[in-house]
Structures are given as C-alpha cells and as structure tokens.
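Q: Got a minute? One more chain.
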Amino acid sequence: MNKLIQDFILLATEHGECTLNGDFKNGNKAHDKMMKIIELIKKKDDHVKKEFYDLMYHEDDSVKMWTATTLLKSFEQRALGVLNNVAKNNKTIHSLTASTTIDCWKKGLLTNIVDWSTL
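A: Always. Here it is, folded:
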C-alpha cells in the first residue's frame, strides 16, 4: 500500500477519534494534514488513486466518509451510497456528519470538490 494512502488512513482515523472525543484542536490538525495528503494523492498515478477509491469500503467509518466526500463529484452514486450507509448504520456523531454531507451535496453547497476524472 502506498505511504500516502497509509498516512491518509491514519489521519482520517485520528480525525474520527477526535470528533468522537470532542478534541477539536487535534482534529483540526489531522484535518489540515489530511487535506494536504489528498492534494498529493490527486497528483499520483492511477494505481494510487485506485487505492484511495477503495478506501470508501474501509472498515473505519471516518475513513469511508472522508474518502466518499472527496470523491463525490467523480463517483457520485457510489459515494452517496457509502455516506447513506454510514448515516443509517453508525450510532455516533458520524451518522449526523454523513447525513449533513449528503444534504449539503444535494443542495449544491460543497463547491470545492474536484472531479478526479479530469486530473
């Protein structure tokens, strides 16, 4: 597995833990690092991008949500399916996060998401 993918998993998991624990300072730090890693992954070859895509099916809901959100414009139906699944089955704040992300996407409020097929 590519090092960037491993780092993304660690940071997304850390962000999820921080969210559950109300640790916004460390959560924000993890988020900032995660966004930088996503930018680097976007520039990698198709193999690395495929590894990233596959994270929509990771066992950790935070990893799933961050990956699905990032890929909403490229794989809308699959990403929405992942987010819907988390919204329906997760019993923590992640359920609300997934639901809110879906609502914001459908209302056109997530304007900074890039279509990875154009990269």
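A: The helical segments are 3-21, 24-42, 46-54, 61-70, 76-89, 93-106.
Q: Perfect, thanks.
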